[in-house]
Amino acid sequence: MANERREFSHIPLGKGGLLMSFYSYKNEGNPRCPGRIGFDGLKNILEKVCVQVNKVYDSCLQQETINDVRIVLKEVCKSHKNFMPPLTFVSCRSTSVKGKLVGTRIDRLQDRPNFARVRTKVEIPIEVVFEDCEGRQGTGTAVITVPKDVVLYVPDESVIPFQLESIVNAICVSGRFIPGDTFRFDVDVCLTIILKIIAKVELLIPAFGFCEIPPCEEFSESVCDDIFNLPLFPPQLEDVCGDRNEPRNEPGCDPGCAPKRGLSIQKEDTKE
Asked: pLDDT digits over 183-234, tens only?
């Protein structure tokens, strides 16, 4: 443990000597880290820089539910003879956020300059989890193919070509095993597909300088925090009810026994 401390002793610590990340509450207010800025924050712009990025020229999102999609599993984790039918569908979801585009065709629209009809098939890789009749669990991969026919802004031809890309997500809500010689299921799946026209460009943007990368915040369950936050000694009555001359109407405080400062002299009533 001592060796580890010596090894990382050169790393600067964040506020309060604690390790943190960009968005740790301990790093709040650091002007060299990402975050929201107001009008005054624009005064901290240091330079104009040229960065190489994938610029999105146009994009569209479609979300839909498709029922009874037939999928055939490949690369099953075990051989077929190890599973006893019937199989029970457990779950499935996409394994990548990037879809594969097949048979893409882009036709410019004569009545809408700069726009085009984009037709393609989006292949979404998924992983399916199932169980056999003896409760043994297995997994396999499959592909869901979704045809798309949309209209997008497509820039004119240039030296740097544009590309069509897709962002995908698929989550199955139910599935049924189809008996046969292969691993087949009919699934109901919720799909999210984003199509984008992009090109790699060099963009001039204002900059605040390089990021100041803080060290990582070490994970701790802090199971002892509630104990360590307890007072060292039990509280006194004065701490609970207050040190004032006036009685306090608080739970657990006797109005007639409020603590008072200094000496108290009680005069006896005398009858003349």
From this structure: 889 999 999 999 999 999 999 999 988 888 777 777 777 777 778 788 888 8
pLDDT-derived band at 133 (thresholds 50, 70, 90) equals confident
Q: How far apart are CA 41 and CA 206, in angstroms?
A: 12
Residue type, 214: P
Q: Is the pTM of this model over 0.70?
A: no
d(CA 128, CA 193): 20
CB 221 within 8 A of CB 101: no
Q: How far apart are CA 80 and CA 182, in angstroms?
A: 8
| Own/partner long-range contacts of 66-69 (Cβ < 8 Å, ≥24 apart) | 66/144, 66/146, 66/188, 66/189, 66/191, 67/188, 68/186, 68/187, 68/188, 69/144, 69/186, 69/187, 69/188, 69/189
Nearest one of 141, 143, 119, 139 to 130, comparing CA atoms? 139
